[in-house]
Every structure is written in structure tokens, then in C-alpha cells.
Write a structure and sequence with these properties.
With 141 residues, the protein is mainly α. The chain contains 5 helices and 2 strands; from the N terminus they run ααβαααβ.
């Protein structure tokens, strides 16, 4: 059939081996096309968890999520925020200090205007209350 020299056969064998290894790599490191199932802790809409007589069987969130206190897991529960983006928000908070305004979310890589508008009603930015200095440290006027 093909008259190949020994070095040409070795080269063809190496190319074939690389192709098989590459295909194996692609099969084992392929990203799933479907979204992973939601964890059980994820809050469902109130209509989905209402039991008989309109009572909710799961606790509803107390209000917007505080960006300055939220954990990665809590941020991951927000729509459009995955674990990587939640980690970036926490990193931003660690580097720059507490968020003074929810508008500072736009400085986080991966949060654009559209995602920000979806998050705006779901998050808040509670500033830490500054405690007044003891009277002995206050200056007299």
C-alpha cells in the first residue's frame, strides 16, 4: 500500500497518538451543555412553595442581600451570578473595602449594565455604623 520509511512510520504513529490523546482530553474535559441542577437550598418563588391555605413552607428572604456581608454561597444564589462571579465580588470587597454603593458592582469584571439592572432590586449596601467616640475622647467646643 504505502511505502513509508521507518522514520515516516514513527512520525505517522506520533501524529496518530497525539490525535487520540487530544480527543480523549476533549471528552474528559468537556463543559456540560445543560445547566447543573439547582441545589435544594435555592429559594423557590413563593407560589411554588405555598402549602395548603396559602402558607409558605419555606422561609422567604428577609429582603435584599447585603453586599458587604454576603458570602460566596449567598451571592451565587443570585440570578446571573455563578460561583466565579460571586468570588470576584468577594475579592473586590476584600481589595477595595466595603461597598459604599451598589453601583460599585459595575467595577467587578463580568458584571455589565444588563446584569447590574437585574441585580439592583436584589442587593443592598448597608454601611457599617460608625460608633461615636467615648465622651472622654471627644473634643470640647
Amino acid at each position: 500500500m504505502l511505502d513509508l520509511t521507518p522514520s515516516e512510520r514513527r512520525g505517522a504513529l506520533v501524529l496518530l497518538l497525539l490525535a487520540v490523546l487530544g480527543a480523549g482530553w476533549d471528552l474528559t474535559h468537556r463543559t456540560p451543555r445543560m445547566a447543573p441542577p439547582l441545589p435544594e437550598e435555592t429559594a423557590l418563588p413563593a407560589a411554588a412553595v405555598e402549602g395548603p391555605a396559602g402558607t409558605a413552607s419555606a422561609p422567604e428572604p428577609a429582603g435584599p442581600l447585603d453586599l458587604n456581608r454576603a458570602t460566596v454561597a449567598q451571592l451565587d444564589g443570585l440570578p446571573g451570578i455563578g460561583p466565579v462571579l460571586a468570588g470576584r465580588i468577594v475579592e473586590q470587597r476584600a481589595k477595595q473595602g466595603a461597598f459604599r454603593s451598589i453601583d460599585e458592582l459595575l467595577a467587578v469584571r463580568g458584571i455589565g449594565p444588563r446584569l447590574f439592572e437585574r441585580l439592583r432590586p436584589l442587593v443592598t449596601c448597608v454601611r457599617a455604623e460608625r460608633t461615636a467616640a467615648p465622651e472622654s475622647l471627644q473634643f470640647a467646643r
